[in-house]
Amino acid sequence: MPNDIYGADATELASLVRTGEVSPRELVEAAIAGIEETDPTLNFMVHRRYEEALADADGPLPDGPLRGVPTVLKDLGQNLMTGQPNYAGSAVIRDLGVIADHDSNVTRKLLDAGLVVLGRTNVPEFGPTVTTEPVAFGPTLNPWDTTRSPGGSSGGSAVAVASGSVPLGHGGDAGGSIRIPACMTGLVGLKASRGRMSMGPDQGEEPAGFAVEGAITRTVRDAATTIDVLAGCEPGDPYTAPTPARPFAAEVGRAPGRLRIGVTTGLDDFETDPACALAATQAGELLAELGHDVDSSTPAPMQTQRSKLMPHFFGTLSALFAATMMELEGNLAKPLDLDRFEPLTRDHIETGRRMSAADATHSRLVLNRFTRAMATWWSDDGWDLLVTPMMPVPPFLLGSLDFDPADRERSHDRIYAATQYSAPFNITGQPAISLPLHWAPDGMPIGVQLVAAYGREDLLVRVASQLEEAAPWAHRRPPVFAGASVS
Hints:
By secondary structure, the protein is of the alpha/beta class. 38% of the residues lie in helices and 12% in strands. It is built from 16 helices and eleven strands. An eleven-stranded mixed beta sheet has the order 1-3-2-4-6-5-10-11-9-7-8, sandwiched between helices. The chain is globular and about 55 Å long. The termini are close together. The mean pLDDT is 97.
């Protein structure tokens, strides 16, 4: 066993399995011990499948690039697993006792890579916010400071990785839900291009092409490898991203060349905390030191999101919530009691039910126009990458984003503000990555986002790995970290 098994990344652990230095069962047993040590404090697991995982580890396992590496699945999204529940952070869904009878394409590809799934992780109910505090399962705590949120909606998976319990955790990102928790827990979060992986067999796109699946990781190479594992079109998919010239993992360490990079430190419609603006500024300075041409620049359509964009983005989410309820009630052949859902969930369902088909179609038209306008910053203006803060504030206190039905506009606006740097690139479908490049004086991580043109994950990976080498972060450990009680 390696001395720092809880600090190793998935690539290293898979290599040790291949050479016979460690067995899959030993890794799974260590991960179980790590979870049982940290989860009582942090509350990131909502379902365990330990016995099945140990049986999986004993084999035979597929001979994939991550053979024998333990992981966890986010309990929301297109990641059903045969014989396992999918609560979506909801007491209503939990109490229905639904068990999946098939694997989603994402789950199948993760399993084919040789990963061993230990269970499912905590999420906000149906994922419409950027903190992980569901009523059904209680809040997940940030291992860097247990009074603060780890972000969301992939907050449970991020904490599983940040606490050292597993080297990578599955996540999904429809408005920042991989990048934001990665930012708030000191990890790497790569959102792939729209259509990079299949959302089937249960969905074609979800919703309106905003969502992608992926992972939260410690290292850039693990993020790239996970996208390689998940990439590819499946029968019936509505579209697919351009095929890369080589595996994304092969881009790690590859020279990116001299790039033209714009840096944004704030937007007109919203406020950005000086610490988060400083993180982006210093990332730009480091990129300049690495030989890139760096200057201040912001795509103009990003500046007026509050009134012109966010209502259409979140309105589309509301339409999805209403459609999801329609499908659930159809399958159950009975109505569901809306009063059993959390206030924010109920608000989205009710909003979606009030929307007309024309309203929903109009929002799609607005979002498509935004996508085309944004693309010109890369295609016409000649920029290669955009650097922004990942979040407008440092990791915030638990309870800060509680939804107040009596002040719903202000409550929604706080979520708008929190997603000002993330949601635009779910709308455009562009690849984006959050890197833990900055640390506040109080020791809290502050992430920085890099965004490339559509289909250019290769460029993101090259530059991200260049930054990782120049300003490494994987050695950092939060106060709550696995291994303290493991001999």
